[in-house]
Design brief:
The complex is a heterodimer of chains A (343) and B (343). Chain A has nine helices and 14 strands. By secondary structure, chain A is of the alpha+beta class. Helices cover 39% and strands 22% of the residues of chain B. Chain B starts with 12 loop residues before the first helix and ends with a helix. Classes of the chains: A alpha+beta (343), B alpha+beta (343). Chain B: This is WYL domain-containing protein.
Amino acid sequence: MTAKPAALGASDKLTFLLSLVPFLMDHDRVSVTAVADHFGVSPERVRDAVNLIAMSGVPGETRQYLHGDLFDIQWDEFEANDNIVLTHLVAIDDSPRFSAREAAALIAGLQYLSALPENGDRDAIATLMAKLTRSSTGAPSQLAVSRTDADVTISVIQAAVRAGTQVEFDYLNSRGTAEHRCVDPLRIESVDNAWYLRGWCHLREAMRTFRLDRMSDLRSTDVPADSHDDGAPLPDTLFEGSADDLTVTIELPEAALGLLADYGPVPVAPGAAGQHSRAQLRVSHFHGLKRLVAGLAGVVTVVDPGPARQTVADWAAAGAARYDNDPAGGARIDDDRADGTSA
Amino acid sequence: MSPTPEQPHPVTVEERLFSLVLALIATQIGLTKTDILSTVQGYRQRFRVGADNASLERQFERDKDDIRELGIPLETIESPDDPGSNHHLRYRIPKGLYDLPADIAFSPDEIMLLKLAAAVWREGSLSAESRRALTKLNSLGIDSSDPVIGYAPSLRAREPSFEPLGKAMDRGQVVAFLYLKPGESAPRRRVVAPLAVVLHEGRWHLYGADQDAGATRTFLLSRIVGPVVTVPGVLIQRADDGQGDRALAELDALWRAQVALITVEPGSDAAVRLSKRGEPGGAAESVELHYTDVNILADELAGYGPEVYVLSPATLIDAVLDRLRRVRDSHQPLTNPDEEAAR
């Protein structure tokens, strides 16, 4: 089901070889490092590819791969000065088309980006999609992404990132506490349809990640943001653990582990086939946990510690209690028609 | 001087594939399988005259598939003297279909946007497809304009069914899978001709022609349990281009038609987040939320515990209450009565 890593590697390498030839053709003399920069690969990879290209060609009339049937380069220039000068071409002289799937991946990515305020020029995006469609071998696969409504907060934060100024807003954390925050905004990130701001929080004096939909009264300020460009890249994971995190053991079907991938569950006791398995999560407090578990009813159960179980039980009980005197509360779930998206 | 390819050296996969592509582009009339196996670099070293070359032939079949997956138009031509015979089939890559159309050009701004679109896919098969598309794009030698700073939007497709469905769609295959519909106790086997895979409201859906129902249906990828298998022998016409848009339009219509009325606890997480997404209802603190799937909305609302009270529809009230009760009941104290006393 998943692609063999070896085959994937060869596909990437072949694509690079086929792309490198037309690029070199357009550049009479180019350094290995310039090529590496342009393609975003290591200089070693460029050298390996050039070596391979220079020894490759077609069988030719004699079927012997004679010298004239092969690509050629100025070897002295390559070996002594790390420059590439292509002197003989074989068979290909143009960039390859995109595959249907490659074009589809870029088109779907563009559809997603069109939600961003900067990319609001829908005509430009449509033109670009049409170009990709014409540049692909087959009709791009039908992969589509719906437009999400761009939140104005994105524009405000983006402007502040550019201007290098602080933003301030009220933020309600998952414990339910509202605090006023002043933040040096560094980056807006998204995962599917959830949007986040990453930045330096002056209240906590630390890097923090904020959900955009938990912000209220966002304002940009004239206060210059401090420089945080100390060369340390932002970690890829949105949330980082801290030393005083609590460890919670949960029980869930093996297949459901993916639902919690963002929380980095560590399996501790894999269940037998069809059985539930146990995993450990690290959480900063139980209040985020209770929301998570209540939103995954029937899938995830907290095993211990006891206070974590209790917090979850109390949360759900308080929610259920609101319907106690409601006559509608006892009805059965039987209205199939309302289940819109399933067939 | 280049080293001559006659000297024995192990031929890497990418060298064999590269040589095959060059040979098939260079030929006008096409090469037979025997031509290829006996003359092309990487095959000829292993070819044995007058002997059984079955494993080499299988290698060629796999290489052909890999090359086509990259969007390279590898054609098969039947011999006019001997139609239907596999033995005299000829293979070639028509250069006109291989080359990117001559009138296609991308501006530095468009390159910048395409790089951002490719970066949207951080994981999975589409990230590899995007990476190869960018390599091909880089072969044009156009420098990107300065990237928009401060953005890292990303999309995920963590459902294991995503990749096999995409492949089946590209190949015009019919698939079968087990689908667990909420409210049903056991999953049911569905046989579907996939037409589009779309992301709507942050969730991946399959739009396809249900072979048993004889009509199009929409499925949530997260409810496909177990593997997606292709149904052998059944091939369908590849779907026309509008399928993705059609699927999204249907989901949008469903989203608009279904509306829930809830009240939110003032100042709570639910009030901050859900009020942003919905429209104010008639009464104070009430919010109207559109939705496509009642069970998914119920999962989300149950996570808010007592912060949300559902007024309508009745199916949603039942679904939320059922979830809250299940979470409450499954988190009762385990065995230790002290924990109960400590409340």
